[in-house]
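F.,

This is the one I mentioned.
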């Protein structure tokens, strides 16, 4: 658990909403801790100490389906068959069909609106098909294949079978990243790690990072590692937005250094900036990045153009990423809390502000205003990514066209909307070249947010309308309220169940429990909407 916890803190930039760890201890017992909040807050020393065992899985959540309710925190658990826990990065696009299958064919109850809970149950259903008392690796490969035939969308997953091992797999388009690394330990044995990004492996001393191939499954057990291409890869199309924004610069994903790709984006953007500035006859005095993500590209852009690079915005290191926050109000407020403009770098200058992307325009609107407030002459905004005009359906939460500032707007209109004197976007071919030149064996990237071409197929106007209806900011707020009510309504019944559980705990049924409710949670913190709770796990800590 301490190592998984460390790994999750290195992946915190991928999800700030909720986090969780499940470990597997002696006799196949599972121990879990999950809640809304950041890794450092949820995993107290005591909580981690209670997560015993030699293998486990963890997750940091950035909700892209359902709500931010803690019932949707991962990993998820089902007891049958074999005791499976599951963590998923990505987003499914055929949830309606899968839900119908669950209901009508598999007769499995899905208790949240999380697509990950659904995916776990698809996996469980395929494992169950074996009908075996004890399964083997062959059965697992067959089950993962069954899941891949059925599930559509983006999914990089880790699953743990109690007392058996860990299974990692990546969808047939390889949209979201996933890799595996090893660490030799004295005596000849080997530790294994799977993670979304290689940076998590480096820090733990794991080596030989290998990307899981699209359509491949990896099984890790005491006996070693087995890999199999369970389904032929479709088009291998990693999401280019990982390189633009989501991933850490020190990670190498699918053979491409994120850092190098951002340097290349800065170089390429410099050419476009040069061209536009010459055409418009504007001179720029200084290049200023928008911390954090655009720094690498902005520095290279400034060097290429021979312009001074200045850190004119100072970032509050205690405020996380704003784009992945769930609500617009929160995002907007956080930009002001996060960034402060230093007048001495802006006053009386034509400033070129460089960001990695302009999505909703929340960041740019605020910082352009700040730049003006401290006396800039002209504010020119350059984006390492082209205009984002289409929703993302594969695990980046930008589901609604209306929320995208470039949707239905020309570049000039975007400038007006965000208050810039001029906006300069990278072209899509330049962005793709910046990334692809670092690994030409990747033939294409998932670029749907820029060109509206969805690599999996199955995403049409009707689907996007439907998605907008359930995922727009407005609807998320409504869903959260409805969910909150459901939780409150469930509470009365669940408290009663909890008390009964306490009796069982007191009689010694639960070896790991330390609290009065048999879950290890102090009664005052008891988690009261437990209808969705992973019944049967040894909960070590819950924030109510
Ligand atoms: O147009 P918007 O909707 O504002 O989205 C784009 C902005 O959001 C991200 O920053 P974020 O604060 O999330 O993270 P960072 O610190 O890694 O740059 C991204 O780097 C842009 O700055
Ligand atoms: N990025 C993620 O981890 C999202 C996983 C899943 N779609 C959810 O909303 O929980
Ligand atoms: Mg940013």
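My design for it:
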């Amino acid at each position: 658990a301490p190592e998984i916890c460390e790994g999750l803190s290195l992946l915190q930039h991928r999800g700030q909403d909720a986090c969780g760890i499940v470990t597997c201890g002696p006799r196949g017992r599972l121990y879990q801790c999950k809640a809304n909040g950041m890794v450092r807050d949820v995993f107290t020393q005591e909580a981690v100490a209670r997560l015993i065992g030699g293998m486990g899985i963890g997750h940091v959540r950035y909700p892209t389906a359902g709500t931010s309710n803690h019932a949707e925190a991962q990993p998820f658990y089902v007891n049958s068959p074999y005791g499976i826990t599951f963590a998923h990065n990505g987003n499914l696009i055929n949830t309606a069909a899968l839900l119908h299958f669950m209901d009508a064919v598999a007769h499995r109850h899905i208790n949240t609106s999380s697509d990950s809970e659904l995916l776990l149950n698809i996996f469980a259903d395929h494992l169950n098909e074996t009908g075996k008392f004890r399964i083997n690796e062959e059965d697992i490969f067959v089950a993962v294949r069954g899941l891949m035939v059925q599930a559509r969308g983006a999914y990089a997953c880790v699953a743990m079978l109690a007392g058996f091992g860990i299974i990692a797999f990546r969808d047939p388009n390889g949209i979201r990243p996933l890799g595996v690394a090893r660490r030799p330990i004295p005596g000849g044995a080997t530790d294994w790690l799977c993670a979304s990004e290689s940076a998590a492996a480096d820090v733990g001393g794991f080596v030989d990072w290998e990307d899981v191939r699209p359509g491949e499954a990896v099984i890790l057990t005491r006996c070693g590692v087995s890999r199999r291409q369970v389904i032929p890869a479709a088009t291998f199309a990693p999401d280019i937005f990982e390189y633009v924004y989501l991933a850490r610069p020190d990670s190498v994903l699918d053979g491409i250094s994120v850092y190098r790709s951002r340097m290349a984006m800065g170089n390429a953007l410099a050419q476009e900036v040069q061209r536009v500035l010459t055409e418009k006859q504007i001179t720029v005095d200084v290049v200023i990045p928008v911390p954090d993500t655009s720094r690498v590209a902005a520095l290279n852009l400034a060097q290429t153009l021979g312009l001074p690079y200045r850190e004119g915005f100072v970032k509050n290191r205690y405020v996380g990423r704003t784009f992945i926050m769930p609500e617009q109000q929160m995002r907007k407020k956080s930009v002001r809390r996060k960034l402060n403009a230093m007048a001495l770098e802006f006053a009386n200058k034509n400033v070129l502000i460089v960001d990695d992307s302009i999505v909703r325009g929340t960041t740019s609107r605020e910082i352009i205003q700040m730049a003006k407030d401290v006396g800039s002459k002209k504010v020119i905004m350059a984006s390492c990514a082209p205009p984002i005009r289409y929703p993302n359906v594969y695990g980046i939460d930008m589901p609604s066209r209306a929320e995208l500032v470039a949707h239905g707007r020309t570049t000039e209109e975007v400038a007006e909307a965000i208050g810039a004197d001029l906006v300069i976007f990278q072209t899509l071919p330049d962005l793709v070249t910046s990334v692809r030149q670092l690994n030409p064996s990747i033939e294409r990237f998932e670029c749907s947010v820029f060109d509206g071409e969805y690599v999996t197929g199955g995403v049409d106007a009707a689907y996007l309308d439907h998605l907008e209806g359930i995922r727009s900011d407005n609807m998320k707020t409504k869903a959260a309220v409805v969910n909150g009510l459901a939780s409150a309504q469930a509470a009365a019944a669940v408290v009663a169940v909890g008390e009964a559980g306490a009796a069982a705990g007191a009689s010694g049924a639960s070896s790991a429990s330390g609290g009065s409710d048999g879950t290890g949670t102090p009664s005052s913190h008891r988690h009261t909407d437990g209808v969705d709770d992973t019944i049967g796990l040894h909960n070590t800590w819950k924030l109510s």
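Residues 473-506 form the longest helix (34 residues).

Talk soon.
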